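Hi support team,

I submitted a single chain yesterday and got back a structure, but I'm not sure I'm reading the C-alpha cell output correctly. Could someone confirm the output below corresponds to the sequence I sent? I've pasted both exactly as they appear in my results page.

Thanks,
R.
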Amino acid sequence: MTSNNDLIKHLINTGALRSKNIIEAFKNIDRADFVYNPSVSDVYEDYPLQIGYGQTISQPTTVAMMLEMLSPRKGQKILDIGSGSGWTTALLSFIVGDRGSVLGVERVEELVSFGGINLDKYGFYNSKIIQAGDKLGVPGEKFDRILVSAAADELPTQLIGQLKDNGKLVVPVRSSIYEITKSENGKVEALEHYGFTFVPLIT
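Hi R., thanks for writing in. Yes, this is the structure output for that exact sequence:
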C-alpha cells in the first residue's frame, strides 16, 4: 500500500473500519504524519512500526478495530492512554470535534514531545498530550471514553472508576482486548476479544 487511501480501502474491505465518523477521521489524519520518517516505503502497511524507546505506532487494523469498539462521538471527553506518536489522539480529536476534548497520556518523555509536535501539524485546539504520572489515568477526572494502547497484566479497575456513566473503556489485557461498558446506573459489563499483541502497560 502506497497511500493513505490504499490503507483506508484495505481497512474497509477487511471489515476493520465500518463507521462513517471513524472512516472520515482516517481520511483526514494521515499515518505518515506520526512516524519519524514519513518517506519510508512501509508507512501505510498494515503492521506496527517502531517509533523508538521500545514503542510502536500500532497496526492500522488494530487501531481501527479498537476505535470501532470505543465508539467515540462528537462532543465527548476522551482519555487516550499510551498515546505514543499521537496518531490515536489525533484520530479521536477529529472525531470529537471542537466541542469535545482528548487528553493523551504517555510515560516516555521523548514521545510526549514527539506526539505533541505531530498533533500540532493539524492545529487541534481540543487535545494535548501530557506526561503520565505515578497513577494510571487521571484520578479525579471522569471521561466518556477511555482508550488504552498498551497491555495490562490484569484489568485496570482504577480506570473503570474514571468512566462516566454510559461510558466505555477499551483496554488490552495480556493478549486480549476488553470492551468495558458502564451503564447509566453504574453497572459494568465486559466483552473480551482474543488474539492481539501490544507493548506492556507500565502501571
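A quick pointer for reading it: The radius of gyration is 16 Å. Let us know if anything else looks off.

Best,
Support desk
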